[in-house]
Amino acid sequence: MILAQQLLLGVLIGGLYGLAAAGLSLVFGVMRVLDVAHGELIMLGGYGTFWLVTLLGVDPFLALGLVIPGALALGVALYWGLFAFVVRADEATRVKNSLLIGFGLALALHALAVRLWTADERSVPTPYGGAVFTVAGLSIPAVRLLSLVLAFALILSLQLLLTRWRWGKAIRATAEDWQAALLTGIDVRRAYLLAFALGTALAGAAGTLVTIGYAVSPSIGLEWTLKALIVVVLAGLGSMPGTFVGGLVLGVAEAASAAAFGGPYREVVGLVIFVVVLVVRPRGLFGR
Amino acid sequence: MRRRWAAVSAVALGALALLPLATPREDILNFVFLVLLGITLAESWNIVAGYAGQVNLGHAAFFGLGALLTRRLWTTGTPIVAAMLAGAVLATGFAVVIGVAAFRLRGAYFAIGTLALGEILRTTVSNVLPEISTLPAASIAAYRLTDRYYAALVLAAVTVAAVAALASSRLGLGMRAIREDEEAAAASGVGALRLKLAALALSTGLAGLAGGLFAYYHISYYASHPFGPQWTFDALLMTYIGGVGTLHGPLLGAVLYVVLKEYLAVRWVDLHLLIFGALFVAIVLLLPGGLVQAAARVRRLLRRRR
Asked: What residues in B contact A272, CB-CB < 8 Å?
């Protein structure tokens, strides 16, 4: 019973892993840019929520409606300010330079967050914070269940955008083969911009849900970047629902290993899977 | 040119060696110690990243392993030099085992793979050894800062000398060939894996010694602290800002980094990371050769004026 409860909590956080990974996967898949500041963007989304709730008294879940456009704008700014310079290079240089730039950005954002919000852990109160459903003897925190549903809804809407919307198709074509996309008259630069902005928006949304269900502090960035990378490696690129499932798998694997080896080791299992998968299929997993 | 650099190095080394005799102020010695530790970390990281062209984001793992074993052996009675050497051997041994697998990864995949590796070690160590490691009272009573200072000076000098020797050797040439184009280097008979392993072994051995120095210097710290990613990030920032793949760049970067960090830390905690993060991004985008390249450009401009 305890195991089942732990696995259930693993599924609930796994949805957020999937959401965190979806943005990274989109940016990497389309731009071949590895933004290791993705976790810091999640962290910023979390603090945006924290401010909206504590300063303006917005309902935490409704804060999503403000955090997502804010993150979109931030994504546009970051693209024009930084990553637009990176995508000019050839693919190997692009990946390496984006890694370094993301790294510098991560450091700067972390230091900025410590300045603005101090190093303390913050969480937001929700009016229905304590509500718990009990199903077949398992308790399900309402807030986390709603987060899971919202994470799934967001990933589904992204998938719809990518398959139905004109520019969504352009983004996918660019991911497939940017030179061919260019030849068919697609504005590849704009596809890059859109992909990066959407990726940042997803990070912001993930940050909101993380802050509601768990907590935010300036140092969560690296942890979430790693989680997102692990899921991207597990799920591969291309399918957003696949990424969501990859997130659930990681959440369950963490819960299972925490049950088997003790709580503190939950972080280790994902990283070990990650390293092993990377080494066994050095290039294949990020590719299709 | 070479002779001039040798003379400058000898004078700098001599001045640093005499410093503890000239001033009894501990804050100055501690400060120079941090610069010397920074130089060792940055130069050792530079071997793999700058010469062999592989961005290793798990450098802290080797620093941490060196610190862990050195502390264990030293506090149980082993002489410090032997303990530090044992720490270096452990770090190198681990690096060679890991390296065979990790070097199957190319470019950014190597970077994130090693980052994950460092985090695995850090988490595991903080679970297994959650306590603070404090020196026994007898060692604290016998603690002399000048011993640590000279150990740091020797280690930094050895590291810089090792990188200088590497830079002008056939081995170093092979490493740079791999950095520029691994396929082409392999096709012209450079054993890429062997050379990358050699670079990693030298780099991690020095990082292990630096970890040992940290264990010798600090009176008390969490056993997982030297495994923290910030040690890797520090080395990376110092190296890139100074000039990656050059001998003088990491030296320059380490001095600038520690000066700014210590100066700013007095008033604003962590502000140096904001500045260095931004500076680092600017350097990657605009000036990939770092300060060394900037200095060379300025020199060329001045010469043209004349």
From this structure: 120
